[in-house]
């Protein structure tokens, strides 16, 4: 029998169903009895417990348990099913229908509360822009990396892996241009001693229709800049009619305007400096002496480690162009104003591929293939497509080395920002290292005399930004009665906890022993499994929903008789399956495959 809820009058809107002590549906529970459910398989009968209506599920538990629940009818309370109308939807189809249920601060609080992400060194105050991934965050992050590696490296025959050093000779960064050019424009507030990225400090002159200008307004870019500056301008204009604001950033301000623009920190003019370049690389020293010869840097990107190893890797692995080298690793940027939680931090992790192609090949076609591949990967791990879009860089938006670049952008709670970039870097990096090192970076075409320096297509994805985007996509809420409850709808392949295993009750001990044995068996298959016997079964289900666990297996009294267990799905809790205990591992294998 299909194990679904059984209503008394099919085809009609169901009345409020009754919740019984037993297996939970969301935070509620179903009457668990294989015999009773089979008697009402037609969906037209009512289970007479002297109550209003009862949830029934096919093949769920022994009749003894149902009889016990009948005697405890006073414990019953109402539960509206999750499939009913009293439920918030985090994202409907189409970006225009989407509305976040929480702002960024809500996600920060969720991450800390549920063990995903903590501020680093918090007991000492810590530095801004550094974060520690908690138990669930570490699992989610590692699962994302495993899925990316499995798809981009193990799933292809033209990409191989590399893991290069974080600290290398400064000659690498000198040749790549990072020592001289890897900088952001910065302005200082002389009064508050705060520093701002000049291209993120926005300002506008406030001009009246008839009386000239009345001053300037400014703010650090965050959310709807135009609306915030207009609000500040109206206050400054004291209700008089204004001309439309022309919004600029501090890199566009003249010396005279810098003196008149108020600092966001003090709200007073005259305390800001002009924009100047600030190098974003972290300096360090190598060896026991601190002098010019020991100076080095923490790498600002993983790409350069691939470029300097490209020729050796291609020779050792006998790779023919086109081929790619993939790497996952830490990078460091001394951001002037780290903000927006994980989106802009000082220590982060990248997943990058440098894909080497013939300079005569159609680089735009190859770039488009990688854009499509990355888009499909993001969808596969659980990002909502209604929050994703493309942005093509042109003209002065292109980096000096790039022939073309397209970003996949994501609509975060604080605005739409870059998540992933696919750049056509040309031969710039390999030529720079060839000139600086004196080593040839040419590729010899097998069986021909032809040689060339390959061009490069680079798909680059920040894991921390993906982590945040996935949380934003997965978060959902539902309402049961007067209670609003949160849950995370992670894809099973990346969920921090793949499956939870519960004994229905702590006694008899045989239930606990069976549940612990099942949990051990699933762990040995490589799944992250949580065993929990504390609290009611409904509360245990809710705890798992809140951290995104897709499946819960419950060992009940039927298990002792026939070695079968119930499997509850987070995203469809009204549809509970019953299967042999030895089939659970195969079930998880099938359900947790990353769509290719």
From TrEMBL:
Any GO CC annotation of this UniProt entry: mitochondrion
One Pfam family here: tRNA-synt_2b
Annotated Gene3D superfamilies: Anticodon-binding domain, Bira Bifunctional Protein, Domain 2
Region of interest (Disordered), ranges: 1-24
BP terms from Gene Ontology: glycyl-tRNA aminoacylation; mitochondrial DNA replication
Record domain Aminoacyl-transfer RNA synthetases class-II family profile: where: 244-492
Enzyme class name: ligase
Record flagged with keyword Repressor: no
Keywords carried by this UniProt record: Aminoacyl-tRNA synthetase, ATP-binding, Ligase, Nucleotide-binding, Protein biosynthesis
InterPro entries: aa-tRNA-synt_IIb, aa-tRNA-synth_II, aa-tRNA-synth_II/BPL/LPL, Anticodon-bd, Anticodon-bd_dom_sf, Gly-tRNA_synthase/POLG2, GlyRS-like_core, tRNA-synt_gly
Catalytic activity, EC: 6.1.1.14
GO molecular function, one term: ATP binding
CDD domains on file: GlyRS-like_core, GlyRS_anticodon
Record flagged with keyword DNA damage: no
Homology family: Belongs to the class-II aminoacyl-tRNA synthetase family.
NCBIfam families in the cross-refs: glyS_dimeric, PRK04173.1
Name the UniProt record assigns to this protein: glycine--tRNA ligase
Species per Swiss-Prot/TrEMBL record: Symbiodinium natans
Designated gene of the protein: glyQS
